[in-house]
Amino acid sequence: MDSPKTTDVLIRLPSHNRETLKILSWNIHDASNGKEGRKIDDTEFAAIVTSCPIFCLQETKSKIFVPDYKCFNANRPNSRSGGLCIGVHRSIAKDIKEITSNCSDIQSVRIKLGSESAVDELIIINLYDSPEHSSYKKRLKSSKSTSDDDASTLDNLLDFTMNSIQNGRKVILAGDFNARTATLNNTIEEDTEALSAANPFSQRSHPCLNDRSSKDQMVNPRGKLLLDFLACANLTILNGSVLGDSLGEFTSVNYGGASVVDYVAVGADIKAIVKSFRVLDLNKFSDHKPSVTTLSLRHNITLSEEILRDLEDAPRKYKWPCEDNAELKFLLAMGDPSIKEKTETLATSSCKTPQDVLNLNNQIVELYHQVAEQVMPRKNASSRQKGPRHNKYGSTKKKSRIKPKMAWFDSECIRLKRTLNILAKKYGRSPLDKLLRDSYYDTRRQYRKMIRHKRSEFFEKLCKDIETGNNICWKSFKALKNTKSPATSLDAFDMINFCKFFSELYGKKNIKDSKIAELQSKMQKNNICDDLTKLLDQDIKMEELCACIKATKKGKAVSEDLISNEFFKASTRSMLKAVLNLFNHCLSLSIYPWTSSVVTPLHKKGDIYDPNNYRAIAVASNLGKLFASILLKRLISFRDQCDPDTANQLGFCKDAQTADHIFTLSTCVEKYVTKKRQRLYTCFVDLL
């Protein structure tokens, strides 16, 4: 039986051409925020991280995943400190590859932007170098298990960067170096010619003048090593040397003081297309300030909001009433004169082409919907945000109010959080103001203390209500489920990827007509076979339809046509005649209109972003399954007459189960082996 010709699923992603590419670099000082949970779940933190198509995070201390971004995580082995993450927006991450390094504190990815961009290939290096007095550095110096551990992070970085530069790749270096360089550019002042002869990459990137500003006037030993490395690699520090940071703002502000330890360095070819470099305001999430580098690079980007806006919402399902008289209400609605007239017309309509059958099916489905709208409400639609939206790349939206993300995060916490954010911005701009410093850290301690108190108070009250057996607020229990967010989440780009995967997997082309004719010509026909096949080809009778409707179960899932089995059980005689007319035309014209299914993927194991790790649950049309059940009954009856099963056959037989064979075998063992002490020979055959 043929099915209507299907077309390949084509999903067009809306894209926007951008003239600039922004890269964020930020030491977030742990991806978790203590009692508040993951930082990425905070809307303010997520707004900062997702404000740029590419971000480089340092000191994450654990893996971090951001919706709409492809994230590459690198964590130190057997250590809770450190950690790096590079995130690239999924729409520009089509041709991206992670470059491995021998040092866990160095992370790099290669991005191909395309021929339209001034730079077709970009190497982004993300680095975090712990302070010399940190416990990790002390432990690293004491252990000398491998030669790589003996080399410093900057030594490994020099080897890694030189390999990229020698291959002609454009490099952007960003991270927390814990190095203070004041306004210096390099420390190589002697033997320049000798170094140049030995290594062409050892020339100074800034030959003479200190063309860089900085509010931090201190130079530490690691700062001198960093300047040596930059001179050898021909890289330029953007801090305090380009538009947007002409004064060289502090990048790290803590109670002990302020400093510039977070840098972004590029080569001369990349610096020529640097539009600006900006250090953002201090916030409560970290003692380090985020920095944004803007490059004049053209690229195309697709926003997830635009993908969701262009897709249609799934149709709302009809909720069958729980009342006993639900079927009576449905029958009364079908008895309406206008509905009755339409059903009688559909029951006598004639179809000559497959398209006529499809139109008849659509009219029957539409008529069922018309009756259902009068009898039963629809289930609530999935809540998708409507109205104007704000996206991180320039379009405007209405800013939403801050909503409590936890059940215990009340208005008092929100007010104190706002006060802390205001103080963080003021203190970041004036880090030498002692009054602001004390006020900021006092408010931060007060905020953290309140968070701990509110959280513990909420859980204590909830446990007390459970133990004493008082009435429990189920709303709080639902909020309790959200206190621990999943480590990963799927986004709109994953939805498109899954849709393409399952469309290609199940959307196979139909068998060609020539192949069907070839198979039919090979069939051996005789008078006996012709008599038997009349049972399969004759028109479907009303008794067959009613018997299959009676065998259907209630409460089954529905497909995109939204027709449930309850509709058939509550249908009038004239409506069943219309359905019977549809089935007979499908049988005579060899057409099956119900070729689409609603697929729900269920994760089995492994990577949640890989569609191969999912089991697809496909829900087909109940109208099509009713037609298929009638054909199945005919096939079973045909086989019983043509080639009936033997008495020993239990597989794929009605009212037969595995326990029947087990009972037979155990009875034989009991009779011949246990009682008669004889031998029993058995054979298990599994025929494919």
Explained architecture:
- This protein is an alpha+beta fold and 688 residues long.
- It folds into four domains: 20-297, Endonuclease/exonuclease/phosphatase (Deoxyribonuclease I, Chain A), CATH 3.60.10; 326-381 and 492-642, no CATH class; 411-481, no CATH class; 650-688, no CATH class.
- It is built from 22 helices and 18 strands.
- It has helices at residues 43-49, 135-142, 147-150, 153-166, 192-198, 221-233, 268-271, 304-310, 326-334, 337-348, 354-375, 411-429, 434-468, 474-481, 492-506, 513-522, 527-537, 542-551, 565-569, 573-589, 622-642, 658-675, and strands spanning 16-18, 21-27, 54-58, 69-74, 84-89, 96-99, 106-112, 121-128, 170-176, 236-237, 252-254, 257-259, 262-266, 274-279, 291-295, 299-301, 598-603, 614-619.
- Strands 4-5-3-2-15-14 form a six-stranded mixed beta sheet, with no helix packed on it.
- 28% of the residues are buried.
- Residues 1-15, 187-209 and 381-402 have low confidence and may be disordered.
Annotate the secondary structure layout:
Blueprint: E1 16-18, E2 21-27, H1 43-49, E3 54-58, E4 69-74, E5 84-89, E6 96-99, E7 106-112, E8 121-128, H2 135-142, H3 147-150, H4 153-166, E9 170-176, H5 192-198, H6 221-233, E10 236-237, E11 252-254, E12 257-259, E13 262-266, H7 268-271, E14 274-279, E15 291-295, E16 299-301, H8 304-310, H9 326-334, H10 337-348, H11 354-375, H12 411-429, H13 434-468, H14 474-481, H15 492-506, H16 513-522, H17 527-537, H18 542-551, H19 565-569, H20 573-589, E17 598-603, E18 614-619, H21 622-642, H22 658-675
Parallel strand pairs: 2-3, 8-9
Antiparallel strand pairs: 1-16, 2-15, 3-5, 4-5, 6-7, 7-8, 9-13, 10-13, 11-12, 14-15, 17-18
